Amino acid sequence: METRSRTFKEIFGSEWGGKKIESIVIPIIQRDYAQGRKNDRIKRTRDRFLDALYDAVQSTPIVLDFVYGSLDDKGVLTPLDGQQRLTTLFLLHWFAAKKDNVNESEYSFLSRFGYETRYSARQFCKKIISYTPDFSGKISEEIIDQDWFPLDWKKDPTISSMLVMLDAIQVKFSSVDKLWERLCNRAITFYFLPIEELGLTDDLYIKMNSRGKPLTLFEHFKAELEKDLREVDPSKAETIIRKIDREWTNMLWPYRGSDNIIDDEFLRYFRFVCDIICYKKGESPQKRSSDEFDLLNLYFSKGADGTNDVSEIKDNINLMESMFDVWSDLSKERKMTLGTIASFFDEFQVNAGHEEGKIRLFNNYEKDVFASCLASYSDMIGGKNRRFSLPRIIYLYAVVVYLQNKATVGWEQFVRRMRIINNLIENSQYEISDSVDRIGGNRMPAIISQVECIMKTGRLLGQVGNDAGNNFNKHQLEEEQQKMDFIKDNPDKAEDIFRLEDHDLLYGQIDIVGVENTQLFSRFESLFLCDYDKIDCALLSVGDYTQKEQNGWRYQIGSTNPTAWKTLFHQSAAKGKTKEVLRQLLDKTENFSDGFLSGIIDDYLMQCEQSGHFDWRYYYIKYDCSRPGRYGKCWWWNRDGGSKEVNPYDFKMLFAPQYDSQNSFHVILNAVCNVIDEVSLDRNNCGGRLIFGEYFIYSDNNSFRLVDKETNDLANPRLCLEVPMEEGIDTKDRVLLGRDWLRDIIDGKIPLQNNEPYNCDEIII
Fold first, then answer.
1. Which run of H or E residues covers position 59?
2. Phi-psi region for residue 73, left (φ > 0), alpha (ψ -120 to 50) or beta?
3. What pLDDT is recorded for position 571?
4. Which of 8, 202, 265, 486 could disulfide-link to 374, CB 3.0 to 4.6 Å?
């Protein structure tokens, strides 16, 4: 058997088994030329192949493996395998000959290559041999513009693919000096082997080529992976390829898609493995390609120049093998039945409520995070958001670390440690990032290290109390340490803590109640079984529990919307007042009810009315229209003007969670106009004033004012109502005062043109 490699030029005229190769013909049964198709997968294949050919002509020669084919008695070589490579070499040699202005006698052999798939493809191969472009623009456009090129040829998939490839060759090789000479000097060679020497029959040949199917992306990937691994560790390469074909395929098979293959699922999990490698190197995947072939070159290949660290590559190979093995081992333990891995997740997770020995998943997360990874890893939503989010990457990796360390980490320890990690994930939404451009930078490497430490040792990594290694939220890290210390001294209270962590509003953060206040746990649960609106008003009756956003202008208060309460309980740096007021309320009874809360509210309102002491809380609680049932966001005009509050009565409720809008409303004005049809909130002013005919009505901290729309001036002094106050606190209900004042204006009791001052004592409440 002849084993010497040949160049594309040398293959013509060479002898095999007494036969000389006179021509190469792509037969009718072969598929169309595919390397020039325009989809993304083919483009990646085309780019990689041209990169390899470019490197070959510039520096290191390349051998393109075997081309198999049938050689008949007339010397016609019919390729069985190698059509795509041969066609690309034909186009590259044609380009080189024309670019370097080679004598026709030197490239005449190109006329002995052709296609029998269609008449148009056959004629195209003949026509371009005698055509020389001027290289003034894209080659494809020059060719299409020739009178010998019928426009319907563009519909031939082989011709259109060749044109795309010629343009790509032009871009890649235009600057290569003496390209033809380099090709002829064996920069690119391949082996040829007749099927007769393999003992193959024509029938088998026909079957293998019938409606020929291209190699899939995964098949290309697997071949590249095997090649790269063999250069580093041949034995390991053999082991991993065997596992891909057997154990790992069997493990992934239940997760196959509608196409009944697991190619995409394998590649998605492979990208997850590569991202973990990236984080462990202290880097961000956002700064490198996500293409699976680029990832192979980056983490599993010696590289074209052989400079990649071999020991590091071996570490990456071992990590990849381990991260796949843990799932196949799990499947084997569970007898490889359908859903075996899913059943593993069922054993330690619940989607709602609390169940002893399990952790609760919040945010509607699916239990089988592994299945979710296989289905959507690297997919994007809206172009920038990951379908498989960073929190899920952290969670899945935590499970992987446990499976890698099952021999030393027991089941109960695993569940307890996953609870800690789940709590940290849920309460670090602003900290979890791998963007180097975001404030705080790429925290994922430190987070990954923290996860490994927790899962392997049950301890937190680093000093809790400072930035804790710049990973998870420092307040949550502190709380988790407090809980670990408390449970160590009070193991009988562990389940009480876990139950509270799983509350619908707490998501693992219980500092609002206090780790040590176990006597209040059941009271908190009892309280939040009641009507949220009554809880809001009862809390405000006990004290001002509002929170000002850190570095923001909005305030947070409760609402009928659970989101408001979750925000209140999770703004770690701002919830001091809320904790104090909540605990005062929890001290009032062991079992809460709507009736009990209504009693607290009624007592507060009665006390205000009897004492003539109406602070801003009174109006919020008294008038239902003050509470929109939205996100619990409110805003005060200059509330924090110094050492004491100013303008406490000049406040608005926001309709949207983060901005003022036309549906916002001034609380006092909204209560005033709520029962008067002749006036309405001015939506153009975001509900900050009332519209009354040709006038606007404003409310500030101590008065109501009716002003002319045009001049924004008082029409006369009687159109300003001063609210009676003592030490900055209303002594009369300003909403009732405002309503009666406005009715008197509407009824003409206060003439708009009368300049006589108006005394609010004239209003009888």
1. none
2. alpha
3. 77
4. 265
